[in-house]
Design a protein that fits this description.
The structure holds 2 protein chains of 2 kinds.
Chain A (H helix, E strand, L loop, with lengths): L2 H7 L12 E3 L4 H11 L3 E5 L5 E6 H9 L19 E3 L4 H10 L4 E5 L5 E6 H11 L1 H4 L17
Parallel strand pairs in A: 1-2, 4-5
Antiparallel strand pairs in A: 2-3, 5-6
Chain B lengths: L31 H8 L2 H4 L7 E3 L4 H11 L3 E6 L2 E7 H8 L3 H4 L9 E2 L4 E2 L4 H10 L5 E4 L5 E5 L1 H11 L4
Classes of the chains: A alpha/beta, B alpha/beta.
Chain lengths: 156, 169
């Protein structure tokens, strides 16, 4: 059984699901960005009263806002959000999630349960962590710093 | 001065030569993806080009404008052709958003991530994933043997790489 087969067999529930940041309509971009900074996340999900995802605000949207003279950080977050929260359910195969992410050039996916309620966040990092966990012999054994040049010369 | 002792050939009790690599066990892989992660160099496997470099004197406003126009998440910052930092979407969120009007004309060196972890263009895809997944750096610059910028790998390129191995037959 190889890694490729695992990716087809395993589902999103086998990935590392991160706690998501949810905000309601009307929350300011400033407050949303502060939450993203505090939680070290590049994405916040906009939810309705039933906690169903209705939009997504990302770092990329923040960059566009900063360059737009007609926008400010005090604008409501939904004004600068994607209207598609890019959801995936817990039983979706990992391979299918990777396919959707590549096709739509997505960085984050909102994880929902069977009722459509937002329960977590995953994405590119979740996939990379999955690969690292399933192939630790090579990936986790790597040195963090490059060692192309030796600190001290050895030998003659 | 003591002389270094001469190396002795490996011999069996009968004095015959024994190949020291005779018990070498080559790595076994479950499939092509595992083999590629271990053996393919990241710069080729993950398509480390194109990439965008900017001089360290570029202003924060110019850098963000460039990232938005090119639809990229990270710039490699150089000084005299040497990599000195990276500037990414996360730097915009953490260091620029709240005080953008005050700092937008300052040089990018004020807010970039200094001395990023790098890999060399001969290192494996597994090494790149190690830095991205374990160390938590979303973008990893790739340098050549002369320490010049040769590319960058990031999560989007990782997904494109992964998809090559998991396309449904």
């Amino acid at each position: 059984m190889g890694l490729r087969q695992d990716i087809f067999r395993d589902t999103v529930s086998d990935l590392h699901i991160r706690e998501l940041i949810t905000v309601k309509r009307g929350t300011t971009v400033r407050k949303t960005a502060a939450l993203m900074r505090r939680k070290h996340l590049g994405c916040a999900i906009i939810v309705d009263d039933q906690h169903k995802p209705i939009g997504k605000f990302t770092e990329r949207r923040l960059m566009r806002l900063l360059l737009d003279p007609a926008s400010t950080l005090d604008d409501p977050v939904e004004k600068h959000s994607y209207t598609d929260a890019s959801c995936v359910t817990l039983d979706t195969p990992v391979a299918e999630m990777a396919r959707v992410m590549q096709a739509k050039q997505l960085r984050f996916m909102c994880v929902t349960d069977a009722s459509g309620t937002a329960v977590g966040l995953t994405g590119q990092k979740g996939l990379m962590e999955y690969i690292a966990e399933h192939f630790p012999r090579q990936i986790k054994a790597q040195r963090m710093k490059p060692f192309l040049h030796m600190d001290h010369r050895e030998g003659a | 001065m003591t002389l270094r002792p001469q190396r002795q050939a490996v011999t069996d009790p009968m004095g015959d030569f024994v190949d020291p690599l005779s018990n070498y066990d080559p790595p076994k892989y479950g499939d092509e993806l595992e083999k590629s992660l271990d053996q393919d160099v990241a710069s080729k496997a993950m398509m480390s080009t194109p990439y965008k470099t900017v001089d360290v004197s570029v202003t924060i406003h110019e850098a963000i404008t460039m990232m938005v126009a090119l639809d990229i998440a990270c710039l490699l910052v150089t000084e005299n052709d040497r990599l000195v930092g990276v500037f990414s979407e996360r730097d915009v969120l953490n260091k620029c958003a709240e005080r953008f009007e005050q700092i937008k004309d300052h040089p990018i060196s004020l807010v970039m991530t200094h001395e990023p972890l790098i890999i060399y263009d001969t290192e494996s895809a597994a090494k790149a994933i190690n830095l991205m997944a374990i160390a938590g750096f979303r973008h990893v610059p790739i340098l050549d043997v002369d320490d010049k910028v040769a590319g960058i790998v990031g999560p989007r390129r990782f997904i494109n790489y992964l998809r090559k191995f998991i396309t449904l037959e």
